[in-house]
Amino acid sequence: MAEKLVGKVVHWYDKISVGVIKLSGALGVGDKVMVRHGEQEFEDTVESIQLDHQVIKAGKKGQEVAVKLSQKSPEGSEVYVLG
């Protein structure tokens, strides 16, 4: 399965399991992603994206978006879209 780097986690909110991702490519609701930090990695599906506390369908390059993830994703984690 091909993977494309679309961003890095720049902030992690532990209590609500939300990562702020600085996008280097497009990311949309429903995308399957792989989150990798060192030796740890997991797959997830994007359920929702927020930009400035507003729900959006997709984020684009250069934006910092908030995405709820199923596992802890510390700062520096790389986010790849699977496809």
* Radius of gyration, whole Å: 11 Å
Instruction: Strand order, main sheet: write it out.
Output: 5-4-10-1-2-9-6-7
Shape: globular
Q: Helix fraction?
A: under 10%
The CATH topology corresponds to Elongation Factor Tu (Ef-tu), domain 3
| Low-confidence residue ranges | none
CATH superfamily: Translation factors
Order of helices and strands: EEEEEEEEEE
Span from first to last CA? 6 Å
**Structural domains: how many:** 1
CATH class category label: Mainly Beta
By CATH, the architecture is named Beta Barrel
Give me the secondary-structure category: mainly beta
Largest sheet: 8 strands, antiparallel
Average pLDDT taken over every residue: 97
Number of helices: 0
Strand portion: over 45%
Q: Report the count of strand segments.
A: 10
